Amino acid sequence: MGLGFLATWLSIETYAQKRVARERLLARVDETVLKRGSLISSPDCRHVAYVITRGNKSAVVVDEHEGKLYDLIGMRGPEFSPDSKRVAYGAADGDKLFIVVDGKEGKHYDLIGRAQYLFSPDSKVVTFAAKANNQWFVVIDSSEQRACNDILVNTPVFGSDGKHVAYGMRFMDEWQIEAVSDDRVSLTVGLDGIGEGSPLFSPDGKRIAYTCLKGKLQTVNVDDTDGMYYTAASEPVFSPDSKHLAYAVKSGEVQMVVVDGREEKAYSATGLPLFSSDSKRIAYRASIDNSQFVVVDGTEGKGYDAVNLPVFSPDSKRIAYGASLQKKQLLVVDGVEGRTYDFVEQSGRIFSPDSKHVAYGATIGRKMFVVLDDAAGTEYDEIGPPVFSPDSKHVAHGAELGGKQFVVVDGIKGNDYDRVFPGAEKIIWDAPDSFHYLAQSGEDILLVEETFE
């Protein structure tokens, strides 16, 4: 298997590079006080944060900087902002709860919403739901909004510009959606319920959609206009260019996808629709009786025992999805079936940035390996999802063998560590010939930066 992988890789780019790794200590973690499962990395994979316990108190540590001890740190733990420069977490002292942002305590409340806190896409604003004096409200950068009886779970949400916030509010038995920017705008009133995944801003931040319940029927409202009413409706999905909206519905005993208000073919069941990056194509899972298949631009693919979510290539011209057939799994790319395995791990981006190559994880027995362009690589005890370099000429993934973890690039393993974390998808390419990731050796959390020579 290793030779097959190597031969395929050489057809992409002949490599003779030597990997040079440089390590920098980020933190030294005392496992005796570390809260299990609390360690996270920043989006840029250059910082870590985690929770420690000292007696009956807990604190958040960011890299090597320990914060204040509190009676309790929220179950969600610390969270980095999208730009990786800020950290927020929920905490409690006595019977009061609050949000700590950049080490500064916010106002104390009786309760903090289950979603707890959310950074805006530009990392400048923090918002969350809170309760005081038996009333709920949304807090946007310390500013308390209109009070109500309840705030919808998993709201508020931001628009892509970070300047628009929307959330669901309940007044007695009536729900409504409220959006806040420079002015407060109540989008609708008189709702009997609001669906999961709602409200949703379009990628350009100019449109808003949500699933709502009126009586016993459900509909998707976009731009303050209700669509048709159905037995059930899924969360809405905007196209990347924000011009199209799609969702799945149930009408009686059948299900279908609705695109821009137009019903597609009815099936026994359908999944959430997916737009291509150019917004011109759409795909979704569907089934008739016990046969599952993927529908691409209205054309049904081959039926299988089960199919996974489809993935479009970056250029929108190709599509791939995992499928199960007679207790075996395979990847289908552009309608062509790959080899069968015991298990196919369809995670990560699958397609290379130039859309020419496909990589994914697979399993035979207890061994796991990466499959690159249908050729299997070296077997390991565990692997992470493959990550292509920006120029599509290299592929990296995490792996474990004999109790040690390491990063494999172009089929060649790197230095051994106790752990490569958190998740092998956190291998970040900085350039076509350099990448970085986090690793643990003993108590040391290391930032590992590698380059080719």
How does this structure look, described?
The strands form eleven sheets. Strands 1, 50, 51, 52 and 53 form a five-stranded antiparallel β-sheet that branches. Strands 6, 7, 8, 9 and 10 form a five-stranded antiparallel β-sheet that branches. The longest helix has 11 residues, at 2-12. 2% of the residues lie in helices and 50% in strands. 42% of the residues are buried. The protein has one domain. It is built from one helix and 53 strands.
Mean pLDDT reading: 91
Give the proportion of residues in helices: under 10%
- Helical stretch tally: 1
Low-confidence stretches: 1-16
Could you describe the largest sheet, including whether it forms a barrel? 5 strands, antiparallel
Provide key terms for this protein.
50% strand, disordered N terminus, 453 residues, 5-stranded antiparallel sheet, 53 strands, single chain, flat, mainly beta
List the helices and strands and how they pair.
Blueprint: H1 2-12, E1 19-28, E2 40-41, E3 48-54, E4 57-62, E5 65-66, E6 72-73, E7 79-80, E8 87-93, E9 96-101, E10 104-105, E11 111-112, E12 118-119, E13 126-132, E14 135-140, E15 143-144, E16 150-151, E17 157-158, E18 165-171, E19 174-180, E20 184-191, E21 193-194, E22 200-201, E23 208-214, E24 217-222, E25 225-226, E26 232-233, E27 237-238, E28 245-251, E29 254-259, E30 262-263, E31 269-270, E32 274-275, E33 282-288, E34 291-296, E35 299-300, E36 306-307, E37 311-312, E38 319-325, E39 328-333, E40 336-337, E41 343-345, E42 359-364, E43 367-372, E44 375-376, E45 382-383, E46 387-388, E47 395-401, E48 404-409, E49 412-413, E50 419-421, E51 428-431, E52 434-441, E53 444-452
Antiparallel strand pairs: 1-53, 2-3, 3-4, 4-5, 6-8, 7-8, 8-9, 9-10, 11-13, 12-13, 13-14, 14-15, 16-18, 17-18, 18-19, 19-20, 21-23, 22-23, 23-24, 24-25, 26-28, 27-28, 28-29, 29-30, 31-33, 32-33, 33-34, 34-35, 36-38, 37-38, 38-39, 39-40, 41-42, 42-43, 43-44, 45-47, 46-47, 47-48, 48-49, 50-52, ...
